[in-house]
Amino acid sequence: IRCWSNIPFLTVPLSRAHGKPFAHRSELRHAKRIVVKLGSAVVTRGDECGLALGRLASIVEQVSMLQNQGREMMIVTSGAVAFGKQRLRHEILLSQSVRQALHSGQSQLKDMAIPVLEARACAAAGQSGLMALYEAMFTQYSICAAQILVTNLDFHDEQKRRNLNGTLHELLRMNIVPIINTNDAVVPPPEPNSDLQGVNVISVKDNDSLAARLAVEMRTDLLIVLSDVEGLFDSPPGSDDAKLIDIFYPGDQQSVTFGTKSRVGMGGMEAKVKAALWALQGGTSVVIANGTHPKISGHVITDIVEGKKVGTFFSEVKPAGPTVEQQAEMARAGGRTLAALQPEQRAEIIYRLADLLTDQREEILLANKKDLEEAENKGRLALPLLKRLSLSTSKLNSLSMGLRQIAASSRDSVGRALRRTRVAKALLLEQVTVPIGVLLVIFESRPDCLPQVSALAIASGNGLLLKGGKEAAHSNQILHHLTQEALSIHGVKDAVQLVNTREEVEDLCRLDKLIDLIIPRGSSQLVRNIQKAAKGIPVMGHSEGICHVYVDTDASVEKVTRIIRDSKCEYPAACNALETLLIHRDLLRTPLFDQIIDMLRVEQVKIHAGPRFASYLTFSPSEVKSLRTEYGDLECCIEVVDSVQEAVEHIHKYGSSHTDVIITENEQTAEFFLQHVDSACVFWNASTRFSDGYRFGLGAEVGISTSRIHARGPVGIEGLLTTKWLLRGDNHVVSDFSEHGSMKYLHESLPLPQRNTS
User: Fold this and answer.
1) Rounded Cα–Cα distance for residues 571 and 566 (Å)
2) What SUPFAM superfamilies does its record include (predicted)?
3) Lowest CB count within 10 Å: 31, 320, 458, 632, which one?
4) What topology is assigned to 324-533 in CATH?
5) How far apart are CA 44 and CA 49, in angstroms?
């Protein structure tokens, strides 16, 4: 641990036996010895004359951070030629201007042509300046750097190879970052046909091959190759069908078409891939990524080491199943086929799934028992989460009933006309419901969520990607198998996919070209993380369920304790459970207030006092740390308000726009509350726990949305649909509707077809 650095550091387990490269990205966080190769396009400015100083400073900061975590960092850098070119141009311009002024005697300078500069001379002029720059930057982080210049001939001489190896090991031992470059001032041209002759030979003809050779010679764990492209594409970047390859396997070269080389530097992508595969064969993991993109260059190296999905990862281990990108494409294709089925066929699939949940009850409960035993043995789940993880016969029966409800209500969901307009004679416009596309649903510790969400996706014709928590792996596996069995009766098995790869949630949230909507189901922290990580994909859900119950002065004594008990104690871990109880000030020290407190104590609910409530008490419960707290357990806050208006203001200030309740017999007060509280669900004399898709008659829900766009409250089938416009004409053109045209707009509303409510 480097305690003298001003960079924050982590303690990470970094020891591993070298020999085989890492099989998965998630293992990269265990890399101890790392080579970072900086391509010419990364180090130099766009005009190829001078260095990209801001980018270089960011790279040095990331390398320093990793060095101070206890890793051994090495840099293979370009940039000497560009730096030298900048210096020599400056010198030539200065020299020419002086000579011109002396010979002409004029202060007016003519246009001066700069001669073509020879690369070796530029390298000689730039090496010292480049190294001085690195030294100055690393000094800011209390790290020393050392320069090593090599040529291909140094690797052919056994003694020189041993010397180089010994020097690098000694530098690493002393916590010094070696900065390595080809000695471009004297480097000879590469020998023909000498590249990649087996594991032990690679011609050092550019910095890609140099980095690969050093990585293998030094038995490094990871080689990061930074260039000016996102990674390896299956066709030249910029072409219409080019797709970034997430993981590249040896033998996949035939499926790739290489483009031209980088704007500067010696090697193109083909050279990088050859060098990467050579290093992989030698036991070093490789990632090729973009080091120039302004949005990611500031953390690209650390992201790679943390195992995030950045660039192209080279691996020798092919996954048993499809990649998540392939699964998303399968879900989209399957979803489109699903949407094209007749409504009765989609309903038939859901009915079949409902039957399977009861017919295969024993197998489901056996798988769930395995999950529960593993969770209890590892002790990683709190009691509320264990309750969510648990399945039972009654839960499966309720699930089956809910699915039948969805099937019955889904018959006219897709393709339903919402508006019909006669725009002009023989020109008919129709707005109809259509699926959103591909949904990504991420859920924790709730295997019952899988068939619910699957049924809603099937009913609405959406493709579905499911990412469940590892704690429910066995339950999710069998429930997904049953879902696909039901889908198979109409040949749409691929429409619902379960992500089983080691995909991080943050990586899934970046698939903006494959996923249309993300729906998180889990803790408020999970929802916040997903909302933060989602890149260009809308997120439907709520980050918190801070639900209030306001007890008015006109509240019924019989109703108060029943509603509060049900709201808080029936299922305290639910997002629609009571978290803050608001009491009208006039009810303090009344028999009703005493009944409320006694009931909460009997139910073993821990009470936290709000600031105003605490001020009324001589000996108060622990004062609440925040009025904006979701406890998710047998705990709640009690606060005092002076009126219904103040209750509304409190809810708007501290609530999460989820579910809020008033208990009163005064209809005027109740209507004021219902109309003024700006939440997804607002109830009068009813438990907060009614905020649920099944209880609303939606069959089930994919979640409860507190957003104000598209869907709000419990989201069932309707919330998973969008619309498209269908225009049916007969040789209509806009010019016919101009001032002197032959046609006129009618914009006549037409009746909608009768809905099937059977």
Assistant:
1) 8
2) ALDH-like, Carbamate kinase-like
3) 320
4) Aldehyde Dehydrogenase; Chain A, domain 1 (3.40.605)
5) 7
